[in-house]
Design brief:
The chain has 437 residues and is α/β, with parallel strands linked by helices. It has 16 helices and 11 strands. A hairpin with a 5-residue loop joins strand 9 and strand 10. Helix 7 packs across helix 8 and helix 11 runs parallel beside helix 13.
């Protein structure tokens, strides 16, 4: 039986904390696609297909034909940033897209101007900007963000909104007493508790304003008991964290294959060079720690050393990120993988992935915005684990380990869509093709 889903009618606001390289690449891309100037390469919601029923039925519609998703023409963009540049200026400064491509959507980009951000250099030490809210307490900051959200929805006459965090990586912090409940968190907001970061304030404000929220950075935010509790109380979908784009994407593709063939691992060394704002922020050890924790967790969860101690019990995993300004948004990742096979004989694999960070992230932002809106219209709230496909550190319910295998994540995502549409889940057993019981 199909899940009752409200139709995707009317305008959908997409709110983006952080109007930097990722956000402006996403917005400019959608504007170009709407005009027929570009294609939505990399987006499951636009080009992805989904098999329904048996292979012999040959039913393979596009995902956006199976479930009701917001139309790109109905998206309205807004956000916050510590710099005052409009989206055209910010996109030019980011240097991701060609000037000629941006000029074709210049008028629309220039109309998108950032609201004043909630920001603290205690949490992002390498950046500073003038477009910041100057308020006495973190509670006041949260209330100001709620006013911004409601004002954006009212001004643009929106039917609903979603939010995707696209701002910088904050300094690493652990869950503390202030994060244990909504009551403790709100008390901490009023008392300016040092363990409450801007990312947490944005997440709180959106949930309080009735807006589904996805976290695209490795910041501690939604993955705290307080904000999970709030999402459940407010019946809001949440998902996170940290967009899975370059090097980690490759790990979630390769590691399941190595494990499937039971090839052993002695070590996996990864290093990156990156020159955009993200690279500058990660040049600070505190922010790098947040990213390192996110990146290191992938292999541990996929390989399950406790289940395969002879193969994965002693491997060495190193991750480095170096800020190198000449590279710009074109992140380059090198991986050296030391393997062993039959009778313990050693092998090596080396990967050099010259990728474009924001180009890989932009379709993720689009898919998350549309899928989070779908979840809200389907009355699905709390942690949306079916969207783990998009994250380095996917959030899961308390007591569950997160699933990192890209192919299991994809199967979970598509089976969730099948379930929502009332279609049979696909197990790939195929028994009935060969045996008539």
């Amino acid at each position: 039986m199909a899940r009752k889903i409200q139709p995707a009618q009317g305008k959908l606001g997409v709110l983006l904390p952080g109007l930097g390289a990722v956000s402006t690449t996403f917005i400019a891309g959608v504007l170009r696609i709407r005009k027929g100037l570009s294609h939505p390469i990399g987006s499951l919601t636009q080009w992805g297909t989904i098999r329904l029923g048996k292979r012999t039925e040959n039913r393979v519609p596009r995902i956006n034909q199976l479930v009701s998703l917001a139309n790109l023409q109905d998206l309205v963009f807004g956000g916050w940033d510590i710099f005052e540049d409009n989206c055209f200026e910010a996109a030019m400064r980011a240097g991701v897209l060609q000037k000629e491509q941006l000029l074709e959507v210049r008028e629309e980009l220039e109309a998108i101007k950032p609201m004043k951000a909630v920001f603290s250099r205690d949490w992002v030490k390498k950046l500073d900007g003038p477009n910041v809210k100057q308020l006495a307490t973190k509670w006041d900051q949260a209330q100001a963000l709620i006013d911004d959200i409601h004002g954006f929805i009212d001004t643009n006459r929106l039917d609903r909104a979603v939010a995707v965090w696209c701002a910088s990586t904050e300094v690493h912090t652990d869950v503390g007493p202030v994060h244990q409940s909504v009551e403790a968190f709100e008390k901490g907001l009023k008392e300016n508790h040092e363990s409450i970061s801007p990312a947490m304030i944005y997440a709180y404000a959106h949930l309080m304003a009735g807006v589904p929220y996805a976290n695209g950075a490795p910041n501690l935010a939604l993955d705290t008991p307080a904000l999970v509790e709030l999402a459940m109380d407010r019946k809001m979908p949440i998902a996170g964290k940290d967009f899975k784009t370059g090097q980690t994407l490759m790990k979630t593709i390769l590691a399941p294959g190595l494990k499937a063939r039971l090839l052993g691992l002695n070590g996996w060394y990864s290093t990156n060079i990156l020159g955009n704002r993200d690279g500058e922020v990660l040049d600070d050890p505190g922010s790098f720690k947040s990213k390192e924790v996110s990146k290191l967790s992938v292999l541990e969860m996929i390989l399950q050393a406790d289940k395969y101690p002879e193969l994965y019990g002693k491997y060495n995993h190193k991750v480095r990120i170096d800020y190198y300004p000449p590279r710009g948004d074109n992140k380059e990742g090198w991986d050296n993988i030391d393997l062993f096979g039959w009778l313990g004989y050693p092998m090596q694999m080396k990967i050099n992935f010259l990728c474009r960070d924001s180009i890989l992230a932009a379709p993720i932002v689009l898919d998350l915005a549309l899928f989070m809106d779908l979840a809200r219209r389907a009355d699905m709230y709390g942690i949306q684990e079916w969207l783990s496909f998009y994250f380095k550190s996917p959030q899961a319910a308390a007591g569950l380990y997160p699933e990192h295998d890209l192919f299991i994540q994809m199967q979970k995502l598509k089976n969730t869509l099948r379930h929502m549409a009332g279609e049979e889940l696909i197990t790939h057993l195929g028994w009935d093709y060969y045996y008539n019981d």
